[in-house]
Amino acid sequence: MRTLPAWIGVVAWCLYYNGVSSQTRPKKWRDDERCGQGYLAEDGNPAECNPDGIHPCCSPANWCGITAAHCDCSACVDYRNSDTTVCERLTADTGTFTSPNYPNNYPDDLNCRYEISVTPPKVIRLTFTDFDLEDNHDRVYVYDGGTTDFALELAQLTGSSIPDPVTSTGSSMTVKLVTDHSINMKGFQADYTAEDKVCESLTADTGTFTSPNYPNNYPENLNCRYEISVTPPKVIRLTFTEFDLEDGYDRVYVYDGSTTDSAFEIAPLTGSRIPDPVTSTGSSMTVKLVTDHSINMKGFQADYTAEDKVFAECAVGQYQCADGITCIDAWKRCDGKDDCMDGSDEEVSRCACQDIPSSLTMCMGIGYQNMTLPNPLDFTSTTVAQVENSTIFSTLSTLADSKCHPRVRDLVCATIVPRCESSPNLRQQLPCRSWCEEVKFSCEKLDSWSAFPSCEIFPHANCNNVKTSTTPEGEECFDGNGANYRGDEARGPVSGVGCDRWDDDPTFIAPYPWANLVDNKCRNPDAYSFSRPWCFTSSEMGFEYCDVIPCSDNGCKDPGHPTFGKRRPILKFHWPGETITYTCDTGFKFKKDSPPTKAQCVINDTTGEAYWATKRPYCEVDQTFKLQNDLLSTNVYAKAVAPTASLGIKAYVVNIINLDEKAEQIVTSFKAEYTNHIFSTSADADYSGGFPRTEVKLDSTGEVTWPITSLTTTTCTLDPFLFPHDNMTCAVCWKAGEDYTIECSNSTTHKDRDFLTCQNNAKDIIKGEWRGKATLSTINNTACLTMTLKRDPTYHYSTTISPCLILIVLMVITFIMPIDKGDRIGFGVTILLSMVVSLVVVTGFLPVSSALPFIAMLIIVCMALMALFMLSTLFIIIIHDKKGPVPKWVRTLFLKNIARALLMGDLTKKLKSEKPTRHCKIKKVNYIEGHDNHSSDMPIDGASSGEDNPSLNTRNEVGTALMGLKGSVDELKVSVRQLSGSIDAMTHADDDDEVAEYALLANVLDRLNLILYIIAICVAIPCTMLIGRPRIIPS
What GO cellular-component annotations does this UniProt entry give (predicted)? Predict the structure, then answer.
């Protein structure tokens, strides 16, 4: 249902229309464009204005009209100015957009807009590719700029016909879609592109146009085009009568057709010279003017006229485009790029591949099966039959049958039936120009060659070429003059140096883009100045022919070296007339009656075969030279100067006399021999220079041997850290003087097989507890006999290390002894002093150095631990006899928790919670030796105070009894003393409970010390090994 917004205080009505009406309903507006009160519409209500017409507003005078405000009455709102939603914002220079839900139907009651903006100062060209809206009820409005202002409306579109393209005047455009509540359609799809601004559109068959502001200066930053179209099928001829632009910065571009695509550019123009006339291929042309931001000039004035099309006459090597007036190079046809303005050179139907028919027997087996026509000889010959019927086909067949070049037939066929490649795209491949140039050099003297086109019509890239030829042996070779050689040879064979790069001289290679002058490879770009592949070199001539074998020319192969000699130059192929020179190696000469030292490559007149005119010579030893070189050469012997001697040494250790590791010295008995070959090159038997004054052995071969047997004392390098697993290195070295060189000997002495040489340079040696190897080496003109020794640790483990370990274990006894025994401290001090003695013993075996052995550092650490735990033991002894109860936290921590952890149980259970009640008192008994204690009676059995004088027997018995009694009394005295001590203890029974708690605490601490001591010793061993090891600092 349609709504009519009423505005208070409004004299007239303005209709907000959203396209909901249908053709069956009565109209709400009048055809006479009267509106308001007093003018009724078909529905019986006051008439409104047609919202889709050009007068959508009702004025106070009851007329439908339009103003800048889109309404002639105050407070009236045009329905097209109502709020709309943004469907899409498009900011790229090209793009595509569609109606909502496209290709499905758009929704009801839609009012949304598309905002398009491109790069200034370009304009927007809008093209609908699909359009289907409910006719007269759903509409598309196109506005110029970023607004929906009715005054800027460019087009109002409805129905199902595809509208014409719409172009904005600026770089922005707005498209609005408005639908009603029923009958929805598919909608639309539209493309837009950013185009240069149109300065002027010219549609007459003749006319004149100028640059903006002409004859005054054109504006800055201008980019606009002139679109010219005339009556088809005429073409346009453009003539400039005035031309003045800033040279190099402001330009006029002329395009063939209604486009500014660079592929259709006819001419770019700049400067102040009037250009030549320009002609289009069709009935449209575009002229674009582009200026920069400074230095403006007068501009241009141009005339154009429509002329009849004149068809071009294309020459050999050209292809005529479908427009009939454009000729392009034949090799550009079907190359994947549109070279014709109409694109006819890349049409699939014109580039399709065809099979080479079997009837064309001349071209069977040429390396490919597919062809494409027309060929570059005649663009009208599109079938094989037309090719065979051409006037030059018979002449080309004669050329193909000639033997002027091995590949002439392939070249002719590749020209008349060009190769066609279908993958990845259809592509024509004409013969490469280098191939043509090579064949031309060999065949141009034939009459039939005149029928073949110029080699300049052939391309040098993306072309058809033959594979590099090879000899029967498989080596690369070249045909003709080698202009088509593509091998990798890149060396001057005579000078032996590499070729120079071709691009080092750009001016030379510029005329030869077809010659494949890449890197420094051998090529022949100048076929008439050079007969075969060559290259620039740094030799005296500046260039050299390359050593590439010709495929068909006669020549001589490389003869190889003579025995004990050489030849020069060394080439794979020698041309007739070339010579080769033989030489013998140093110390050799040509044998008597040997062939000449030079040989020439000649041709046999009968067979035409090439061969060497002379055989290869033979070299033999030149005894005279050898004698002079060996004995009399100044490089070997000078009479006034002693010759430099080369000494070969061999030696071994006979015995180790004494080894003092503390002093780091070793006394050894060794045997060495020096060998000198000075007499091998001297015939002077009285020669005495250069030898020490000692006994030597002179062999018949001239070899001199100097045996040395001696005792030597040398210093050693001892590494004591892992004592007794330490090692020691001792070296006995000999250094040669400036006139001598010393090196190890390669041979042993047959009389003494113990000598160490270069091949056998190591031998085992043993001295007491030391074992190792003796090694012979020579370096920096110094020979060394190096003894690397390692100690056998058995002795020191037994006599030095084990006592230390036993003492460390015995320290445990300190924690096992009763606490109240004062011998604990004395025992511990004894162990500590014993460790000091062990430390002195260990260090007494080793030299004084900056590094202590591991065992010595471990002893020091253990001594420190022993001293620490001795102090702890003293503390335990002190608190053991302390009276009174321990603090509650001590009782809980030590007597309960730590005691349990040490497997001693809960010691708090042994403590009494309260003091016991005394039921009796024990009187203290004092006993003094020699007096009876009156507190107790001691009756003696068998004695009575009432008896009178006994008899003798009785007295004897009494005496015996008294003696026994005396012994009993002595025992009693001892018992009384013990009883006295017990009574004293009982007397102090009130303090027993207090003393027991500290005693228990002392027991717990004692057990804890034992555990900590064992742990500390175990941790000390790896930590001492890690911390005490000497650090090796890289040099």
Answer: plasma membrane
